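Notebook entry, structure prediction.
Reason for the run: the old model in the group folder had no record of what sequence produced it. Starting over properly, with the input documented here first.
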Amino acid sequence: MGLDVYVGPLARYYGGDWENVAERATRERERERVAGAKPARRKEAQERDRLHRAVLAWRDTLQNSLGANAPGPLDWDEAPDAPYFTGRPGWDGLGALVLWAAYVEHPMLRAPAVLPEEWDNDPALVRCNAEGFRSRYSHLVRNVELWLPLDFAFTFEGEDVDRRRVVVGSSATLARQLADLNAATWKVGEGEAAAWGRRRPDDKAPLELHARHAFAVMTGLAHQSVEHRLPMKLDY
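New structure, fully documented this time:
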């Protein structure tokens, strides 16, 4: 199962008015759709309106549930014509990046050379999520699936628009934590980091190469989320 990351209005996401990396590549390669055509999975106008209202109602409920902990008004852009952005770190990329951060925090442990098959049970990652441990990379290692374009330090569990339980974080904090991870390890500039995102490593490539690729993808999308005031979420 692939893993994409979407940045854009949530109503647009749930309405299907977007394409992931593979879908866009297929359309461009086969030239089966004319320029500007709507993706085939796009919902009808009435359904899109319903989804838009549902997202706004969900956002109001989230605001009320956070109460005094809310980092201000939850007023990101949900306009129908707001842009969207996508990237594909893949599960191997995201897993490698998460473990890379976990082992930076626990240097006494030896990182695996390649991504383990069950990386979510990795001992360094388990320690990062242990009760009472304050991770420097909390918005990366805590199984976050939805990042809001607001600035807050905590992560929390709640319901998403589909009423699934998900962990929610901040894309502003994620961007800073990714920058901190780079400063603590690779120390590369924006140009070199961006180049990492343009070529996906082979499946059996070392853990670090997958981590670098995912770092570039996630950093770019986190910056788009903050700049355009748009949520960021995993799609799988």
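Summary: The chain has a mean pLDDT of 93.
The old model has been moved to the deprecated folder.
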